[in-house]
């Protein structure tokens, strides 16, 4: 029942709060190891989160882990989704321990979804090797984000509004935006909307 009411029971990434204001928080995240899959959502009937099952199979979330050890890997949160279109509009979606980013040309959109692996995996070599060739394991260096937190359902309209407001606040205060935004979702789909934790994260210098 706890997860229905927003209880987060999985590992979440460590970070340092560099600065906070009424409008946002600046966080610095340490290096991490991620598992990612890149795909065309049309392969999953237009589902932007369709790569989730591929990554979940790698860690063994739904059964035997699809890696060469084989070793079950604990789920983490949040799930981060990033996507962009040729027009420059950015749309994102998320669930629990995943990062997704995407790019597209015209109507075609390519999405990259990422799971942040538990902090015990410090180097790529320490993580179990995927059986599925679509899954790539790589290291991500230290990064800094401006972020805002919100509850409810992260619809595209809500996300776009939050992103626009956050970007303007960061630029107003002298921060330089250095990449596309992320939408971080900390809860599974069955969590009641008022109890969901979502974050908009924009990389800054």
TrEMBL record:
Gene3D superfamilies reported for this sequence: Regulatory factor, effector binding domain
Highest taxon, organism lineage: Eukaryota
Leader peptide range in chain numbering: none
SUPFAM superfamilies linked to this entry: Probable bacterial effector-binding domain
InterPro entries reported in the protein's UniProt record: Reg_factor_effector_dom_sf, SOUL_heme-bd
Family under the similarity heading: Belongs to the HEBP family.
Protein name: SOUL heme-binding protein
Record organism: Acer yangbiense
Taxonomic lineage from the root: Eukaryota, Viridiplantae, Streptophyta, Embryophyta, Tracheophyta
């Amino acid at each position: 029942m706890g997860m229905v009411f927003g209880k987060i029971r999985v590992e979440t990434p460590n970070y340092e709060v560099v600065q906070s204001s009424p409008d946002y928080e600046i966080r610095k995240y340490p290096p991490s190891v991620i598992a990612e899959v890149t795909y065309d959502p049309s392969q999953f009937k237009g589902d932007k989160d369709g790569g989730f099952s591929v990554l979940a199979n790698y860690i063994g979330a739904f059964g035997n882990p699809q890696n060469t050890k084989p070793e079950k890997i604990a789920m983490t949160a949040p799930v981060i989704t990033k996507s962009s279109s040729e027009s420059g509009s950015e749309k994102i979606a998320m669930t629990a321990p995943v990062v997704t980013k995407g790019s597209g040309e015209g109507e075609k959109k390519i999405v990259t979804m990422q799971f942040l692996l538990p902090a015990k995996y410090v180097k790529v070599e320490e993580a179990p090797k995927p059986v599925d060739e679509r899954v790539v394991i790589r290291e991500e260096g230290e990064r800094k984000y401006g972020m805002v937190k919100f509850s409810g359902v992260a619809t595209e309209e809500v996300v776009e509004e939050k992103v626009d407001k956050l970007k303007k606040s960061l630029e107003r205060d002298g921060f330089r935006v250095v990449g596309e935004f992320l939408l971080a979702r900390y809860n599974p789909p069955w969590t009641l909307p008022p109890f969901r934790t979502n974050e908009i994260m924009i990389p800054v210098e």
